[in-house]
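User: Batch of two.

Assistant: Item 1 of 2:
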Amino acid sequence: MSILQKIFRSLKNGHRTIRPFACISVNNSRGISSQVEMNLEKGQNLSIPTTFPPNQNQHEQEDHQYEENIKKSILENALQFVPKSGWSVESLSSGAKAAGYPTITHGLFPNGGGDLVHYFNVKCNEKLVDAMKTWPKTDTQEKVPAQFVENAIFQRLIMIDPYKTTWPKAMAIQTMPNNVPNCLATLLSLVDDICYHSGDRSVDFNWYVRRVGVAGIYKAAELFYLTDSSQDSSATKSFIASRIRDAQLVQSALNLSPVGAAPQTLTAAFTTAKNILGINTLK
C-alpha cells in the first residue's frame, strides 16, 4: 500500500489498527508451552493453530480499486472547475479539495490536464452509448444508417458545450505525445460504438473504411462546432449531414470501381489521418 493510500484511509476511515497475522497471549504462553511438552513426551503430533496472511493478490486488487475510486472522485469534482481554471493541475487540485482529499493528490495524475480530458472523453462516450441503446433502429438497406450516425455525432459534440470556451486548449493537450495514445483510443472507441449501435456488423475491409470515415467526420465537425454561433448549433448539424453525404458518395464510387478509385482513396485516407492527428492546419 502506498503512502498516499495510507493517508487516504486515515482521512476517510479514521485510525486503522494493524493486527499481526498470529497473536499469542503472554498470560497463556506458559500453558501452551506445557501442553506442547506433554504432547512431545507422549509421542503425539504437534498441532499449533496458525492464522495465515490473507491472499496478497486480493489485497493488491482492493488497493488498486481503492485508488481508482479516489481518482474518479477527484476527476469528477475537478470538472466543475474547468470553465474557470481550464484543463489544468489547478482544476485537479481544486477537485481533490472538493472531494475531501489534500490538494497534493493531483500527483496521482502524471499527465495532469491530459488525464482530466481523457476522463471527460471516456465519460461522454459511455453516456452516448447508453443513449444510443434506447434509439429506435431504422428499417433501411444501408449498413450504416446516415441519420443515426448524424444524430450520434451531433449528440456527442454538444456534450462539450459546458466547456466549449476551453475545448481548444483540451484539443491542444490531446496532441501532446504522452496524451496521443489515450486520445486515439477514445476516438476509435467512439466511432466503433457509433457504427456498431447503428447496425454495422461487417467483418470485411469496409469495417475499417467506415470507422476511419466516421472519425474524420467527427474531428472535422468538432472544429466546426467550436466556431458555430448558430441557434441550437444548427449549422453544425448541417455540416455533419453534408460530410456524411460526401462520404456516401465516396463509398458508392468504391463499390462501383474499387480498383480505379484506389489512388484517390489512399489520398483521402492519408488526409483524414493527418486531420485526426492534428497535423493539418485550418485555412
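Item 2 of 2:
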Amino acid sequence: MKTEGIEAVFLETHNWGKQARFLRELGFEVEFETDHGSGQFRNGDGPYVFVAEIPPTSEPRTLLVLKAADTAERPGGDVEIVSEFEPTHYGTQEMTVRDPDGRLWNLQAPGEE
C-alpha cells in the first residue's frame, strides 16, 4: 500500500485555549472550532493540525495521519495492522498501524459515498 504523504497531525491537549493561542502565535489559522474543545488549524499548504482537549488524567498523544487513496488496498510486510479501516464521525475512513518501534500511525481515506 502506498500512501500520499502526511494528511494531518493530531494533537491531544489538556488546555484547548492555551494550545490554540500557541498555534496562532506560530502562524496557524483556525479553519474551524467545535463546541467541545477541539478544532482544526492550517499554516500554508501543508498538513492540517487537529487539536482535541482530553481529561487531565489522560496522557496527551501526538499522531501522524497519512493520506490513503482508498480503503481497498492493505499494507503488508513489516506493517502491523492495529485496526482496519472504519468510518469516522467526521466522514472519513481510518486505519491504525504500528511501526517496528511501536509507534502508532493513522491512515485516513475518503469516506464511503
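The chain has one domain: 6-110.
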